[in-house]
Design brief:
Blueprint lengths: L1 H10 L2 H20 L12 E12 L2 E7 L4 E6 L3 H10 L5 E10 L11 H6 L5 E12 L4 H12 L3 H8 L7 H9 L10 H17 L4 H18 L4 H18 L6 H15 L7 H15 L1 H4 L5 H24 L1 E3 L2 H25 L4 H18 L6 E3 L6 H18 L3 H20 L4 E4 L8 E5 L2 E5 L5 E3 L2 E3 L1 H12 L4 E6 L5 H4 L2 H7 L1 E7 L6 H9 L3 E3 L5 E4 L2 E5 L14 E5 L2 E5 L5 H10 L7 E3 L11 H7 L3 E4 L12 H9 L3 E4 H4 L2 E4 L4
Parallel strand pairs: 3-5, 10-13, 13-14, 14-15, 19-20, 20-21, 21-22
Antiparallel strand pairs: 1-2, 1-4, 2-3, 4-5, 6-7, 8-9, 8-23, 9-10, 11-12, 16-17, 17-18, 18-19
Helix pairs in contact: 2-11, 6-15, 8-9, 8-10, 9-10, 10-11, 11-12, 12-14, 14-15, 14-17, 15-16, 17-18
Length: about 675
């Protein structure tokens, strides 16, 4: 047909795809930077819409409501009766009315860490509602929501939900962390591998049924589009489905379009659908790895041995994803190249197909669970091997584009057997790894841990952490501040170990997350106070051997800093807090823990303190500390207060703040600023 010939000539022009991509990127930049004004505001008290997602976890219900603008609703069950009623009553597609309090999602105040507010805004969600009451206006009459609801309810096993719907939320957080640490977490995102296997099965069945080839591809294409919507237009699924559709068209109509051009076209279409995909790690992994495997297909197939081809695929995937991994997670595991040789076949050939079969024949979940247990147990053991794990400081974004130029040179050297070209990548990684050792800056970082304390003093590449904060609980689910804030923040700064962990006293909000820290990060020595050891401290002692009791006048020097412990054992936990006077670069810092007015009197009676540069206020700015006599005596230039937003204790107390104002002392509070960094440079 003449029009097909003309179309083929157009589609064979390479520059068309690049022009289209450039136009899409320009449009995407405008769309990303467009300031959207929400239809909701904090004065509203009700909204109606269609339920597009439901999640029930312990006593917490989260509803995503589809309206002109989507909104998140949160409700806490009073008892199991309420919970069971909601589970039986609400379904996807139901039209409901929610009444409650509207608010914007809380913003993350600690820079460079995961920002839930921005995450939701990129999905078009700007407000949430704290639900007081729910009214059903009409039940679902949409067949699509009906099917999705049935699939979700049938996916009782967390891995069924993962491999059928691309939802990993039900997999244990510690297990997910193991997968990420050993470099196999990409295997749990529905991607080209899964879509290829699924489409191959369907095409094979249709072929046996003697369905014509064009109809086979059409039917499978329609099925995959419906499946794409079931997964919520997941970016990696979108890429895989579009890939199948356009490769099918290319094959059936003999357009002979190059694979790389089809890939560029699919990338452009994906960004037109949602430009905010560019912020999603799964999108970046999916496209950069897939494109690299297409470009280097000849190199992969140069050897017919399955395991050599698998090794090459694993090596390429690892290398091209390095900049993305280092920017987002700050650590890599060199052994992940080897691990994938085992886990790719285990998941793609056994676990994923078994998940599909178990979804249809539910009784086979028993067999699936055997392999899941092997998977989880082996990754837990392997994750303990730390020798090939490396931490890299976060660099300005431009450096990661330079990395890709180096990676292109690396593969040029690999495919042409020019070893000199491959060395540049090794040198780049080595320099990146060593950058923190070249940075001699000293600083204090008060980490925003909510209602708790955690302060890092970094001096001459040595690190002293004072307290860890506690573990928060949301709807009976624990949230580790150390895992989600402290460790990611330290890694972004290129910090690889804590030389001293000072636990000022045995209260939960100061040392409650210590076990998570010592289990997930290198700690050399722990200091505790001399008061009676409580159960929290006993648990730490059981899990860590190098612990010392820091009595009054305990002294140590590290980097450019000198630490002197000033407090005595006063038989009460807060009163007996470790209080350290830190001298660093002609600056004096006084760290008070939860020390009280009684402790202040004890310290003033034994030490002549004056002209303190920085005071970490005792007990989160409570009226039980910071007496006028103490503040007047030490005369601090700056006071730091660690307190949670809207905390139930109303810390810091007004009387204390008024006292600081009376003596015209500057103060900074984590509840208002988030994590606070102060440079302690040599003068």
């Amino acid at each position: 047909m003449p029009y097909l010939i003309r179309l083929r000539k157009i589609l064979l022009c390479n520059f068309i795809y690049y022009i289209f991509l450039i136009l899409v990127l320009i449009i995407s930049i405008f769309r990303i930077n467009y300031k959207y004004i929400s239809i909701y505001n904090s004065k509203m008290n009700n909204v109606e819409g269609i339920i597009s997602n439901i999640n029930i976890e312990d006593n917490k219900l989260t509803i995503k409501l589809h309206n002109k603008e989507d909104i998140i609703g949160i409700f806490y069950f009073k008892d199991n009766k309420d919970k069971k009623f909601i589970e039986k009553t609400l379904n996807l597609g139901d039209k409901i009315l929610l009444k409650g309090e509207f608010s914007k999602v809380s913003n993350n105040k600690t820079k460079k860490l995961f920002n839930y507010r921005k995450y939701l805004e990129r999905k078009g969600i700007y407000y949430q509602i704290k639900i007081d009451s729910i009214y059903i206006l009409s039940k679902n009459n949409n067949i699509f929501y009906y099917i999705k609801d049935k699939i979700i309810k049938r996916c009782t096993n967390p891995y069924l939900k993962t491999f059928i719907l691309g939802d990993t939320s039900k997999i244990d957080d510690n297990i997910k962390e193991n997968y990420r640490n050993i470099g196999i977490s990409h295997l749990f995102a529905i991607s080209g591998m899964h879509i290829t296997l699924l489409s191959s099965i369907l095409l094979s069945i249709l072929k046996k049924l003697k369905v014509r080839e064009s109809y086979r591809y059409l039917l499978v294409g329609i099925f995959l589009i419906l499946y794409l919507f079931l997964t919520g237009i997941n970016p990696s699924v979108l890429r895989a489905v579009l890939f199948f559709i356009f490769f099918s068209i290319n094959r059936l109509y003999y357009f002979y379009i190059k694979s790389t051009n089809i890939f560029i076209f699919i990338l452009s279409i994906s960004l037109l659908i949602n430009p905010f995909f560019i912020y999603e790690v799964s999108f970046l992994y999916s496209f950069i790895i897939s494109y690299s495997l297409i470009v280097l297909q000849e190199f992969i197939n140069s050897n017919s041995n399955y395991f050599i081809k698998l090794f090459k695929t694993s090596l390429i995937s690892f290398i091209v994803s390095l900049p993305i991994t280092m920017y987002n997670f700050n650590s890599i595991n060199l052994l992940s190249i080897i691990y994938n040789l085992f886990y790719v076949p285990l998941i793609s050939i056994i676990i994923f197909p078994l998940s599909l079969i178990s979804f249809i024949f539910n009784k086979l979940i028993i067999i699936l669970n055997i392999f899941i247990n092997i998977l989880e147990f082996s990754t837990t053991i392997i994750n303990k091997v730390d020798i090939f794990k490396f931490t890299f400081k976060t660099l300005p974004l431009g450096f990661y584009f330079i990395y890709y130029l180096v990676i292109i040179i690396f593969f040029r050297g690999l495919t042409t057997n020019n070893k000199k070209l491959t060395v540049l990548l090794v040198i780049s990684l080595l320099i990146h790894y060593l950058i923190p050792y070249l940075d001699k800056n000293d600083y204090l970082l008060m980490i925003d841990v909510g209602q708790g304390d955690s302060i890092l003093i970094h001096t001459n590449n040595k690190n002293i952490l004072i307290d860890t904060g506690g573990i928060r609980s949301y709807s009976k689910k624990e949230y580790s501040i150390v895992k989600n804030t402290t460790i990611p923040l330290l890694k972004k700064k290129g910090i690889k170990k804590i030389d001293y962990l000072i636990l000022t006293h045995g209260d939960y909000d100061h040392l409650g997350d210590t076990i998570n820290l010592i289990n997930n990060f290198k700690v050399k020595k722990i200091l505790i106070n001399s008061n009676k050891i409580n159960n929290l401290e006993k648990n730490i002692i059981k899990n860590f051997s190098n612990i010392e009791i820091a009595k009054r006048n305990y002294y140590f020097k590290i980097g450019d800093a000198e630490f002197l412990q000033l407090n005595s054992n006063l038989d009460e936990e807060n009163d007996s807090s470790l209080v350290f006077l830190v001298g660093i670069n002609n600056k004096k810092i006084l760290l008070m823990g939860d020390a009280s007015i009684r402790s202040e009197k004890e310290i003033l009676s034994n030490y002549n303190l004056s002209n303190i540069d920085i005071l970490k206020a005792g007990h989160h700015g409570s009226r039980t500390s910071s007496s006028e006599k103490f503040i007047k005596e030490i005369s601090p230039k700056l006071i730091l207060i660690s307190a949670g937003v809207n905390n139930k204790f109303n810390h810091p107390h007004k009387e204390v703040i008024n006292l600081y104002k009376k003596y015209k002392i500057k103060y900074r509070i984590t509840s208002k600023e988030g994590s606070i960094k102060i440079n302690l440079k040599k003068e």
